[in-house]
Amino acid sequence: PAVALIVMWVGITWMSMVEGGQCSMVGLPPVNRELYKESHPITYKICSLGHKGDNLDRYLMGRQFMVIFINFTISLCGAPLAGAEALGLPDWIQSI
Q: Is the full-model pTM beyond 0.85?
């Protein structure tokens, strides 16, 4: 259970980074990259590569497969153990 808990939280953290990266990659194309070239050089390099040609579409497609993998992993690691009771609730509520 301890390893599953650690893997679950690593997955949740990873998912937040994936979602934040996707928001940035989709939201930044209309912004002139020269505005943040000096202040955020890593972002400038990533966006220069990611916004070239059809790279953004390919990134989004690959990201979807990664999101599915991460979500299944989080779900498996966060599933209750057999015979576990949640907060002492009746069986019919726990079966929902």
A: no
